[in-house]
Amino acid sequence: DHTSDACATLAKKCRKTIIQWIDKGNPNVQHHLDILDGEQHSDECLQTAAQHFEAAINRAKQMDLVTDQAIACERYAECLQRHGKIEQAGQYFREACLLYECWEAQNKVTMVVERSSRLAGYNQL
């Protein structure tokens, strides 16, 4: 549909810009590229997507970017959920909530808890 196409076009443009920044030596954006690459592979190959999401989480953590780490955890959890990895998804949803709480983003915590509580066999926070 039109919305999906527009999002894909915007993601490609953002990815291209981030790559240009990395090529110019910007050390602070690699985790954004990792998130986009994780999203790109999330429906096709869980193993490849996992490598990108985990790299994004680790890089954001190393730079103490709590907000970006939370977003990467949430996106990875959603990827895992789509692939039926419910227990792992729950772990990353919980991590995202803890990070969002550090960020004092209570509305985001509520959204993630509501979404993750729909997982079969998932225990809420």
Explain what you see:
- This protein has 125 residues and is mainly α.
- The chain is 78% helix and 0% strand.
- The mean pLDDT is 88.
Low-confidence runs (pLDDT<50, min 5 residues)? none
Structural class: mainly alpha
- Helix content percent band: over 70%
Topology as H/E string? Answer: HHHHHH
- Measured by DSSP, the beta-strand proportion falls in under 5%
- Enumerate how many helices there are, as a single number: 6
Average of per-residue pLDDT values: 88
Q: What's the count of strands?
A: 0
Give the biggest sheet: none
- The radius of gyration is 15 Å
Shape: globular
Please report the distance between the alpha carbons of the first and last residues: 36 Å
Structural key phrases:
125 residues; mainly alpha; 6 helices; globular
Detail the topology: elements first, then pairings.
Layout: H1 2-23, H2 30-41, H3 46-62, H4 66-82, H5 86-102, H6 106-117
Helix pairs in contact: 1-2, 2-3, 2-4, 3-4, 4-5, 5-6
